[in-house]
Amino acid sequence: MAYVVTEPCVGCKITYCAAACPVEAFREGKDYLVIDPDICINCNDCLRECPVNAIFPEDEVPVMWKDWIVLNAKESKKFPMINDLKKPLLDKDCNIKEL
Ligand code: F3S
């Protein structure tokens, strides 16, 4: 089981998660990040860092975002690795709890 990035990341892409990941499991798409489930060690570091609560353990992904489990698995094999902070995208109202 791995952690999963979900819909709230889209258009926000704050990248705190990627900088916190100790095993370089994050991959960068244009509007959001995903996690490679073959690399994730379920350490919880990314989940704590995301200010929009976009990351869930696979078995706790809300029903409306379940398709993100497969999306993370597939797209993580195509996207480039990201392991550091980038300027947040923030091209929508991200309802950030802290930044
Ligand atoms: Fe997205 Fe949250 Fe990471 S918005 S890029 S999952 S810190």
From TrEMBL:
Domain 4Fe-4S ferredoxin-type: 1-27, 31-60
Job of this protein: Ferredoxins are iron-sulfur proteins that transfer electrons in a wide variety of metabolic reactions.
Keyword Electron transport: yes
Cofactor annotation: [4Fe-4S] cluster; [3Fe-4S] cluster
Protein name (record): Ferredoxin
UniProt-recorded Gene Ontology molecular function terms: 4 iron, 4 sulfur cluster binding; electron transfer activity; metal ion binding
Keywords: 4Fe-4S, Electron transport, Iron, Iron-sulfur, Metal-binding, Transport
PANTHER family per record: FERREDOXIN, OXIDOREDUCTASE
A Pfam family reported for this protein in Swiss-Prot or TrEMBL: Fer4_7
